[in-house]
Predict the 3D structure of the following.
Amino acid sequence: MLKILACSSIGILTYSQYKYADSEEFRAGMRRSDLPDFTLDDISRHKNPEKSVWVTFKEGVYDVTNFIEHHPGGEKILLGSGGSIEPFWNLYRAHHKPQVYQMLESMRIGNLKNAQVLALDDPYKDDPQRNPEMVTHGVKPFNAETPNDLLVNNKTTPNDLFFIRNHLPVPHIDPKTYRLELVLYADKCFEFSLDDLKSKFEHVTIKSCIQCAGNRRADMAKYGNVRGVMWNAGAIGSAEWKGVRLRDLIKYANPKHEYQHAHIEAYDSDPNGPFGTNIPMSKIMDEHGDVILALEMNGEPLPLDHGFPVRLIVPGYVGVRNIKWVKRISLNDDESNLIWHKRDYKVFGVNDTPDNVDFEKRPPLYEMNVQSAICDPLDGATVESVEGKVTFKGYAYSGGGHEIARVDITTDKGETWHEAELSKDLAYHKKHWSWALWETKIPVSELQNEVCVKAVDSSGNSQPRDTAPILNYRGLLNNAWHCIKINHK
Ligand SMILES: Nc1nc2c(c(=O)[nH]1)N[C@H]1C(S)=C(S)[C@@H](COP(=O)(O)O)O[C@H]1N2
Ligand SMILES: [Mo]
């Protein structure tokens, strides 16, 4: 079926274009003859949140003043005020969906006069190729997890299967001109080339897990509204990181003052500034010196997606503190004000909503809680028994270097438990930065349709049975018992 649209530049459409032409996405920003025209000048005069804020999208002009306080991304909406929101939407691709187009059109006030609709560059066009086996949750930015059953095949997660959590396009950095800046606030600044890092400092190798604070968010989402990437249990991996101690660089710089915090800035950035975080100096300078600037992952130069050429590894800390593509480290007395540090990765209560939370009141999340998951078989699988038993495998991990003390599996909702066998990774000065993989065989006669796991760490911390009491709208730190449904013959 063909359809001719009023817009002359569109002409005759094929069927797939026709379906598109009926979509919200297509209609958003199209010229509307029932509305007045505004010039770019007119629009640029409306960027005062106290009075009025206008933005453009393609040929559409929108008054978003009343929407600012409801914008899920908060005041970021002001980045586009008085001009086009397209560059930001291309960066934050989650906007490209029918509901958002529809909402935008509800704020429509006019057309852009003499609009020359620019074809905007795709900031993600140089992102690297990824392993198609990965379970992809989003492409721009790229977010993908290891298929959960493959996770437990290796104590060291292969580079091309290690989960990827990007917030922005992958920066491409020339290793020849790369410089790491170390700024001693209001004092002096040092620059290190890759050669400096490799030749001036002792090399160390540390096996450490990285786990995203949102690991298992998809489970939490069954209990209420949560926001973020819908990870299953695969937003975790363990790798051997080789690099130099950040402590050694700081000792080399020899600050004359005892700073409290290190602000870490990365090369990936958006109009708000660089991606980055804050690490307390006490962690960097402790007697272990295990916070490293890694140049290699599992014996290879860091892959582009994992921070080439230099990433920070902060063992025992939540994923986001392990900053990729490190650009600058500044020492300071105060905690970093970077938006990614101040306005994210904080844990709220069950009744907190985006409208009532006070980010300033909450401390940043550093060490993680104790976690475990069943990876093999996968949820919903039909299991087979060998000699009357079914094998279950998974991982357990605890933040802060706590050792996994035990892992137990139940087939009867917690009445009785099977202790699993653990295969632990090496500890460094009694700190367990990596995970324990576990395995157990359960008689098929005992199996019902659900199997759950929980772990206990060396401090006696364990996992709560239920998710509902730990629900938080950001979907962080879900460490409730991990349960899977199974069928058996
Ligand atoms: N520069 C930079 N560092 C970053 C991120 C990022 O988007 N940019 N994501 C963080 C988050 S939230 C996590 S969980 C880990 C993921 O590391 P990976 O992609 O190597 O698995 O990187 C952290 N470091
Ligand atoms: Mo993360």
